[in-house]
Amino acid sequence: MQILLVEDDNTLFQELKKELEQWDFNVAGIEDFGKVMDTFESFNPEIVILDVQLPKYDGFYWCRKMREVSNVPILFLSSRDNPMDQVMSMELGADDYMQ
Question: Where is the Response regulatory domain (predicted)?
Answer without folding.
Answer: 2-99
